[in-house]
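Researcher: I'd like a candidate sequence for this fold, 460 residues long. If you have to choose between options at a position, lean toward the conservative one.
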């Protein structure tokens, strides 16, 4: 029994809660993609929910896409709030609000279309806060040499997508479309309440941590997150920093890839190739399982290279950021020539979604390298700007496919995506850095930890 308790340490419990929180947040984001099919088509089940809504194609796309406005508006705010008040209160509150707005979605649908849009925007705000607010936890709980591995836990969001695709249809078929909102929202509310009991901003604040674990974390991490004040933020230096914009631009380009593949590729497969990839929920979920698995492997390799000093830290970050952009360009080039073949398209789109996860060992972890104190703010900038660009990408797809969806129109979209990946590739390679920036208030402590990290790896 004692061995079991020692295995289930406070730090491992934190990791479990981070994994489940990101899994749930993605389920809340994608549940509408499944429910909306039943909401606008006559319900043929034996449930008591025969209601359908007379939404136009524009309204349907707006319902699915307006969630990005919430992401764009709240990601930066959420990141900064987590640095001021701590991740425990900010991320936990975001989980509760997202769960509540999800449960209210059916009611908003019945009452008014614009009320539903407002609910979706509010939901996006809660979900957008979750992404950057996890960074301060990494700063206080995780050794710098394990930062990539910790950030890979955020990729569990893709397991949430896989779970919704595999099981969401069954919920809708047997219990009606509102059930998918009640189930996912209800589970998130329960998980959000549990978050406040089990998760704390730092080891020093945790009331149930053993002294042995506290000393071990203190030895490997070295310092805890210091909550900052609004007037302390060096906004000018952050906004004029090349390494910051290298990370932000890479995140924008990465999200452009991810959200285009998730939101628009199913339409291409259905209307251009006449292959409904959503006919088999399990088959549809496989790319997301592969994405998560590759991301976990990439993060472990990045941390292993860092500890063994196989490459310099900046080389590791550039390899793991540049590789997904380069592979995406290569795959999309293949698609632009032979994408009329369903077999080629399935192969390309599956690999395209999967390789984006390699970036977890690159610019996503790099944000903790350049500024431990303001990592949430910087990451929030990337998520917010990337979400806005992803919303605008919907307009780009509509521009090329407005009159007709065929391979020639989509070939133009593929070349735009190739250009976006090229921009992300070049900008990050030119402007990225792995050094703690001199405007970070903990620069001295961070540099000491980097030196200690080098000494430990040299001894190995």
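Model: Candidate sequence:
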């Amino acid at each position: 029994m004692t061995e079991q308790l020692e295995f289930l340490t406070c730090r491992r419990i934190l990791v479990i809660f981070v994994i489940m929180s990101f899994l749930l947040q993605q389920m809340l984001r994608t549940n509408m993609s499944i429910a909306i099919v039943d909401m606008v088509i006559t319900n043929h089940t034996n449930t008591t929910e025969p209601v359908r809504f007379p939404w136009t194609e524009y309204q349907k796309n707006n319902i699915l896409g307006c969630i990005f406005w919430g992401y764009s508006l709240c990601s930066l705010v959420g990141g900064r709030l987590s640095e001021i008040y701590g991740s425990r209160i900010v991320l936990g509150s975001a989980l509760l609000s997202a769960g509540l707005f999800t449960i209210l979605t059916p009611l908003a649908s019945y009452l008014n279309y614009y009320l539903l849009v407002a609910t979706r925007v509010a939901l996006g705000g809660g979900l957008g806060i979750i992404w950057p607010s996890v960074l301060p936890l990494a700063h206080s709980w995780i050794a710098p040499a394990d930062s990539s591995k910790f950030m890979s836990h955020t990729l569990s969001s893709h397991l949430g997508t896989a779970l919704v695709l595999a099981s969401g249809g069954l919920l809708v078929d047997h219990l009606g479309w509102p059930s998918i909102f009640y189930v996912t929202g209800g589970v998130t509310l329960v998980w959000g309440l549990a978050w406040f009991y089990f998760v704390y901003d730092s080891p020093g604040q945790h009331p149930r941590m053993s002294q042995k674990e506290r000393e071990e974390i203190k030895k490997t991490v070295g310092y805890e997150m210091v909550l900052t004040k609004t007037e302390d933020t060096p906004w000018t230096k952050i906004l004029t920093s090349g390494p910051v914009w290298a990370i932000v631009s890479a995140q924008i380009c990465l999200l452009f890839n991810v959200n285009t593949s998730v939101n628009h590729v199913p339409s291409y497969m259905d209307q251009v190739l006449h292959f409904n990839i959503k006919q088999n929920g399990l088959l549809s979920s496989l790319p997301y399982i592969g994405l998560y698995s590759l991301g976990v492997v990439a993060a472990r390799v990045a941390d292993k290279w860092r500890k063994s000093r196989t490459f310099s830290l900046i080389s590791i970050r550039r390899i793991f950021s540049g590789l997904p952009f380069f592979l995406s360009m290569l795959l999309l080039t293949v698609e632009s020539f032979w994408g009329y073949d369903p077999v080629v398209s399935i192969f390309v789109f599956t690999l395209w979604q999967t390789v984006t996860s390699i970036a977890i060992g690159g610019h996503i972890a790099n944000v903790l390298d350049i500024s431990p104190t303001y990592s949430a703010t910087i990451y929030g900038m990337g998520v917010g700007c990337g979400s806005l660009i992803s919303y605008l990408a919907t307009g780009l797809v509509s521009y090329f496919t407005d009159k007709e969806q065929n391979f020639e129109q989509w070939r133009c979209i593929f070349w735009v995506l190739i250009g976006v990946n090229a921009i992300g590739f070049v900008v990050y390679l030119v402007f990225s850095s792995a050094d703690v920036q001199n405007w970070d208030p903990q620069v001295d402590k961070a540099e000491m930890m980097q030196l200690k990290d080098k000494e430990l790896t040299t001894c190995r």
